[in-house]
Design goal:
2 domains; Rossmann fold; 11 strands; 48% helix; alpha/beta; globular; six-stranded parallel sheet; 386 residues
């Protein structure tokens, strides 16, 4: 990994802090959202129209629902990924009109919270780090008096989780009602590792990733002046594809690289700055882990975020990609050579880049926002509750 990081263009590392400070200053100024003042930018005009239509469709669309959801949202410092994922889900449920509150992170607060909020759905993760945060006696006492379903994440041993048989036995003891997953329905049915859930009569609800369009959209009046923006962590499971696909681009072209795990980055941008950074990208770089290439398990969250942000996207051929997006919406590469070629085409041909950005925005705003996901989850939960 050290050799790979050393090969990255020195301006990428050297300019990181100044670009980050620019984003902080730009965010502090506020200003124009997804449409510039004169409406002349085709990208921001289209985004404004699509975004407004989506917001009007979903805002308070389920305000009459009887759902009262309590869900765990870990602190950001405890789990940045978990905090982002569950905060997005919670804020999207709230946006469509569902009553939702954060389940306390301290088990000593469980009893008082349940009495105060009186949820009929409790969502948490099937991980000891989450489960120990609940006072199970208090929850059992509450559920004996109130109709309340309990849902856990459906996690399999292949991802490094503890023995599934033991966890399913504990689930029966705790009267778990259902499971849910951020993986796709296709994957949950195809992968045999999930069979024990179904064999025991559990239903697994699917909540795929999506774009939170309250946070991600094109910003008017910012010119794309960076060859690329790549906001991604440097985790070992990503290294093989990083090493295969990225050196030819990252060594030749300076850009903005940001996220946990990179040796030469001492602080990274919080999600609130991402839309400003993406606005400066000529190309949005995206790579999936090998599992997403081999299985129709998920598109990473970045796929949806880049689309909603109006960034021309360069991406590898994840198994699910053309099931969720039209082929014209991004430059899809099957090999490292195609990946480099696609990068240079998007970088040098603004018209091609805009055409792909426009189509990607149409796809994501019409089908793949977190509002779509939250609404689907609410519908599934209502059917279980009834």
């Amino acid at each position: 990994m050290a050799d790979f990081e050393d090969s990255i263009h020195r301006q990428t590392w050297g300019n990181h802090e100044s670009i980050l400070r620019w984003a902080e200053n730009r965010a502090a100024r506020g200003g124009h959202g997804p449409q510039g003042p004169d409406g002349s930018d085709s990208l921001t005009v289209l985004a404004g129209e699509l975004r407004q239509k989506c917001i009007q469709e979903f805002h308070n669309s389920r305000v009459d629902s009887k759902l009262r959801i309590a869900m765990h949202v870990p602190p950001f410092e405890y789990s940045p990924g978990g905090a982002s994922l569950f905060n997005n889900l919670k804020s999207s449920l709230d946006f469509i009109g569902i009553q939702v509150q954060t389940l306390p992170w301290q088990s000593t607060e469980t009893r008082a919270f349940l009495e105060r909020f009186q949820p009929n759905i409790v969502l948490t993760s099937d991980s000891e780090d989450y489960l120990r945060r609940i006072d199970w006696d208090a929850l059992a006492h509450y559920r004996r008096r109130s109709h309340c379903l309990l849902g856990l994440t459906a996690s399999i041993e292949a991802y490094g989780n503890p023995d599934l048989t033991g966890r399913l036995e504990n689930a029966r003891k705790r009267d778990v009602s259902f499971y849910y997953s951020f993986r796709t329905p296709e994957y949950l049915q195809q992968r045999i590792d999930y069979a024990p859930f179904f064999d025991r009569g559990f239903r697994i609800l699917s909540v795929e990733f999506g774009a939170n369009i309250l946070n991600y959209f094109p910003i008017g009046e910012i010119e794309p002046d960076l060859d690329y923006v790549f906001l991604a962590s440097s985790n070992p499971d990503k290294w093989p594809r990083y090493f295969a696909y990225l050196p030819a681009i990252l060594s030749r072209y300076p850009g903005f690289l940001d996220g946990p795990g990179w040796a030469y980055i001492h602080r990274w941008a919080p999600p609130s700055l991402h839309r400003y950074l993406y606005a400066r990208a000529k190309v949005g770089i995206n790579l999936h882990i090998q599992e997403s290439i081999d299985w129709p398990c998920e598109l990473n969250e970045r796929t949806y975020i880049l689309a909603a942000s109006g960034v021309p996207q360069l991406v590898d051929r994840a198994k699910l990609l053309t099931e969720r997006f039209s082929p014209e919406s991004m430059y899809i590469a099957d090999t490292p050579e195609e990946y480099l070629h696609g990068f240079e085409r998007l970088r040098n041909d603004r018209q091609l880049a805009l055409e792909k950005s426009h189509q990607a925005m149409r796809d994501v705003y019409s089908k793949h926002t977190t509002f779509h996901r939250a609404s689907g989850l609410a519908k599934d939960l209502e059917s279980l509750l009834n």
